[in-house]
Specification:
Blueprint lengths: L1 E7 L4 E7 L9 E10 L2 H4 L9 E2 L3 E9 L11 E5 L7 E5 L4 E2 L6 H5 L2 H13 L8 E4 L5 H12 L3 E6 L2 H8 L5 E4 L6 H7 L5 E6 L6 H7 E9 L13 H6 L3 E4 L7 H14 L1 H5 L7 E6 L3 H9 L6 E5 L2
Parallel strand pairs: 9-10, 9-12, 10-11, 12-13, 13-14, 15-16
Antiparallel strand pairs: 1-2, 1-4, 3-5, 3-7, 3-16, 5-6, 6-8
Helix pairs in contact: 3-4, 6-7
Amino acid sequence: MKAYWLTPGPTATTVELRETATPEPKPGEILVRVRAASLNRGELLGGKAGAPAKPGGGECSGEVVKVGDGVTGVSAGDRMMGRCGGGFAEYALMDAREAMRVPGPLSWEEAAATPLTFLVVYDMLVAQGHLAAGQWLLVTAVSSGVGVAALQTGKTLGARVIGTSGSAEKLGRLEKHGLDVGVQTRAPDFYDAIMKATDGKGVNLVVNNVGGSVFAECIRSLGYEGRLATVGHMDRQLSATIDLEALHRNRLTVFGVSNRFRTAGQRAETVRAFVRDIVPHFEAGKIHPIVDKVFEFGDLGAAIKFMESDGQVGKIVVRVD
């Protein structure tokens, strides 16, 4: 089969198309014929010089062609989506515990844009963030894949959402998806706008997609018993200072989120909860993953360059025919 191998570098990612053997599912795994796979910034950017190449593509959608020993409830031909190993290929393996059936309304491309992004958002907003209807959610870099998924999920939960972006055009595009307040900035200077929008109370939950450069401003923007989820570091700044007085005074909660560093069993538990709590909203047509642009399989290099340009609103997907 044809499969892409990626070598992430400090400033760019090298792409190589190879002819490789089609994998065989081990016990507990399923093999899917990949129909679409989406790009994730964490996989593609910020690698170290001299890093080895590895199969690319961490999430995909496709049809089941074979199941490993011990797998039940899944049959050949089923439409599935989920975390995978090497999704930028004609075939890919999934851990059956993390695989999900594609909700009926979703296309292959929308399904490929769902698993990793919406699962980490579920972790931030529901499992750890305890976001409730009527509360305020602040999402930095709201036009990113995680940012858009947080906006959509937050609105589905009944929250009011503030988003930051350096692009007024992107903020305008997200208004039709429910963005209540857009703040045009890439700098840590949004506190005043947050206080104005929330009548001086601050937000209940922050999703920090940007990183250390805005961490202190996120802390300032939280209200009493506010929660701060740090998920990304687009600024590549991995350290920040914290205002301990604000932490104590406002009884704040600060937590990190990364499914990559969890065990398969821990991720599977989140998948089951996500299927129970959020997938019905996909089935009902209330949530449609926003796919900014779809590239053909042979154009993966162009898709990566588009992601590096920061031009997208939502997810970038590669169609595998």
